[in-house]
Design goal:
Layout (H helix, E strand, L loop, with lengths): L1 H26 L3 H20 L16 E3 L5 E10 L5 E11 L2 E8 L1
Antiparallel strand pairs: 1-2, 2-3, 3-4
């Protein structure tokens, strides 16, 4: 009886390991990718709040090319945002910043 439980547990563990490995392979989700996505999310929030009309901000979907890990462990994030200016016209602005943990610094928004 104990031997059957061990065999069953090994099969379950093998299937779970295979499923997790397959998920990581398909999604490309690694710890580094998670940190890049978190940096992107934080950066777009801070940049959006810096705009004249934050509620009109439209950022592109996340793309790995927008976030670069620096040698010092920080992330450089750059992309564009479409948002209304003070005259109500929707314009596209390029922006960039540096993310370290929960801190966003060196925010530059080109109009």
């Amino acid at each position: 009886m104990i031997r059957q439980k061990n065999v069953g547990m090994k099969i379950i563990c093998t299937i779970m390991t295979f499923a997790i490995s397959l998920t990581i392979l398909i999604t490309g989700c690694t710890p580094a990718s998670n940190e890049k996505i978190q940096s992107w999310t934080l950066a777009t929030h801070v940049v959006g709040e810096s705009l004249k009309s934050p509620s009109t901000a439209s950022f592109p979907s996340y793309n790995d090319e927008y976030v670069t890990k620096n040698d010092d462990g920080t992330y450089s994030v750059s992309a564009y945002v479409d948002a209304e200016n003070s005259f109500g016209a929707k314009i596209r602005s390029n922006w960039s910043c540096k993310v370290s943990g929960d801190n966003v610094t060196d925010v530059v928004i080109d109009n």
